[in-house]
């Protein structure tokens, strides 16, 4: 099993733990990576990630450079 170690701002981590209710950093990191893997697989399919309010209105596109890179890679593969 691989280990990932990185430095993260204490206030950012504490805020994320309070927001999610998850205090174990390994659980928080694993869940974050699982979400990123899912988002990347959706981007690879050419899908756009959008959030809405509970009523399904006020859409906001999820924009992350890492996801844009996945889409660009997929488009480059299709062009070859």
Give an account of the 3D structure.
The structure is a single chain. With 80 residues, this protein is mainly alpha-helical. The chain has one domain. The protein is 57% helix and 5% strand. The protein is built from 3 helices and 2 strands; from the N terminus they run ααββα. It has helices spanning 10-20, 25-44, 65-79, and strands at 50-51, 60-61. A two-stranded antiparallel ribbon has the order 1-2. α2 runs parallel beside α3 (65-79). The mean pLDDT is 91.
Rg (CA only): 16 Å
pLDDT averaged residue by residue: 91
* Structural class by secondary-structure content: mainly alpha
The termini sit apart by 35 Å
Spans where pLDDT lies below 50 across 5 or more residues: none
Order of helices and strands: HHEEH
Molecular shape:
flat
For the biggest β-sheet, the strand order reads 1-2
Number of domains: 1
- The total strand number stands at 2
Main sheet summary: 2 strands, antiparallel
């Amino acid at each position: 099993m691989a280990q990932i170690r990185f430095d993260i701002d204490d206030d950012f981590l504490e805020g994320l733990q309070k927001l999610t209710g998850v205090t174990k950093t390994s659980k928080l990191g694993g869940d974050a990576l699982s979400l990123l893997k899912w988002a990347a697989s959706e981007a690879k399919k050419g899908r756009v990630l959008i959030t809405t309010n509970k009523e399904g209105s006020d859409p906001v596109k999820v924009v992350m450079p890492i996801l844009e890179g996945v889409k660009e890679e997929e488009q480059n593969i299709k062009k070859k």
